[in-house]
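Practice problem: predict the structure.
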Amino acid sequence: MKKGIFHSMFFNLSVTDPLKEYYFFRELGYDKVNCPLSEGFCLTDGTLRLLITPERSIPTGIVLAGQNLEEMKLDIKQRGFLLVEGAEIQFPRISGPSGTTLSLIEMDEQWVPPLKGSPVSLCGTFFEISVETIDYEATVEFWERMGLEVIYGDKKGNWVTLADDFIKIGFYRQGTVEHKFRSPAITYFEPDMQDRIRLLQQLQVDIARPLGECKNGPVDAILETPGGYNIFLFKS
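Answer:
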């Protein structure tokens, strides 16, 4: 999608204990910013806006914000998608074949926290939201219809990264990823990732799964948030 009807994107984590999840990301160096929602927290790593909301509020997934909800809904419907709406659903949404949800929120752009454009967290440079999917081809087609374009990988292979003006999402054919993970996950790449992992260990941040262990410690690692979500830290 391109900026216009939609002006901002958030990645939302739905959890049972938002406060505990919030403090975990603060330990990683995420900055707190004003939250445009009455419930939950909003943080940023400089290039990604992260929402943390209580369960039964907004499903985990992508949240698109725009000035006019009716215009956003019309855009989605013109792409051939059926929105899930109703009295008990606070924000209209659609779900892709992978189960990844995209929710719509009407929001004045002036209330959206600006991005610094450079990484501020200990995790380094945000690369993508990573999703494992059984229906690989259908998932890629779904997000292409949403306006994302392939920037890495091969649609005929086992993984691909798509992007638009707001976000990068990587899709991986289920069973082809060496390490198991909970979808969706947040992925970071840095040349000095081994040093960053060592610093996190010194700060007593629990490393759920070290990867590529060597005499100087793990080269890559997987963190697990209190809510059970994964953060990938990979050496580029």
